[in-house]
Amino acid sequence: MRIFLLSAQSVTRCPARIIGTCVLITLVSASSSNAQTDAVCRQQHFGKFSEWSAAVNLGPVVNAINLDFHPSTSPNELSLYFSSNRPGGILTGAGDRNEDIWVTRRAGLDAPWGAPRTLGPNINTEFRENSPKLSRDGHWLIFGSGRPTGKCVADSVVEFYISYRENADDDFAWEPAVNFGCDFIGKGENLSPAFFHDDDKGITTMYFSSPRTGDSLLASDIYVSTRRFHGAFGPAALVPELNSPVADVAPSIRGDGLEMFFKRGLPPPGPADLMVATRETTSQTWTAPKSLGPLVNTGFDNQQPSLSCDGTTLYFVSNRPGGLGNANYDIYVSTRKKLEEPAPVLLSASHDGSRQGAILHAGTSQVASSSNPAFVGEALEIYATGLVDGSAVAPQITIGDRVADVLFFGKAPGFAGLNQVNVRVPGISPGPAVPVRLTYLGRLSNEVTIGLR
Questions:
Q1: Which residues of 385-407 are buried (b: 16+ CB within 10 A; e: fewer)?
Q2: Is the pLDDT of residue 95 over 60?
Q3: CATH number assigned to the domain with residue range 8-335, chosen from the 4 options 1.10.10.10, 2.120.10.30, 3.20.20.140, 3.90.1180.10
Q4: What are 14-41's pLDDT values in tens digits?
């Protein structure tokens, strides 16, 4: 949903320095009927993936002999936004980082990309524009700009600006942009905003990179800012576990908030690698970052990763040999597949996955059997395998023909690889062998039984 203090048409009239309070933007929520959002862009359980494939150059239709930077796809992955200093933009030719924002489109996920077009004067200026990022509903574009209008920090090089479009399928309907906010901006290049909305906690965070503690790009680190109750994003905080003595730049976060990609290494021309860090829950810190490996990285500069909504496609730029620009940067893509996960299994007393379940009266070691039945309203402990540790997605337990209230689910204490689900018995007819089933992320378990009086 879009949440406004003012109408959508008033966005362009918001004072540049208070856009965050003028418009309460749910940057990662769905909105109108023509929004591009579908289930792949929402917080979900992604499961396991294969390794990344060898990176492929997007080719001469998309890439030019000039610099091509900061790729980012629309939610439906039919539009690819990026920055470039190629001819035809508003700011070209005067320097190697005089970028405008461009877009290329395709008719379908298997169709070729079309010829890129500049976004025009509502987005691009005679100053530098880069690092575009679309909101999850496709109606908002947040990007970096070196324009002086609405500038927050005197010694910043790039700050974030925002534009709105009513039609989320029209890549050239963007309204004039205004500054996105001042509280989190630092000196130097503020780059690559990456948004995550925690659906369970109702909290929106923005990750980005900035060299605010130093005078060179080598001082670039990853920061995070949290959206406050009135809509504006607050002061930025360093994310220490993602940073190192070299440059850590351009974060891209998966839709569930559990996987983070970024560049680590030297500023252009590198070398630098694409890294990934993970965490089990959104309340935990990130693990030590790891390289994506030689199929993605090279001994050159690999940077500015951008992950698709479904987590299977990674766009990035590299100055590796074989590109179109003779040591300039081209856009590359690597893919991975979602792996099939096994169905959850309810444990049984007979160890064969059938008949009497390994279901205990809560707080005891006694099985809820025909000779020691459970009763309506009682709490039971159910043991299973195949749930995801740390997942916010609760399994569904059906006892008889009724869904039971889940009181707890997670790791079974003291048993590696075993899951525990505590439920309250719903009001159903008694019997010596009442069926119990578990459904998790659309996958149905085996059937076991309990005794119920």
A1: bbbbeebbeebbbbbbeeebeee
A2: no
A3: 2.120.10.30
A4: 444 334 434 434 444 444 444 555 455 7
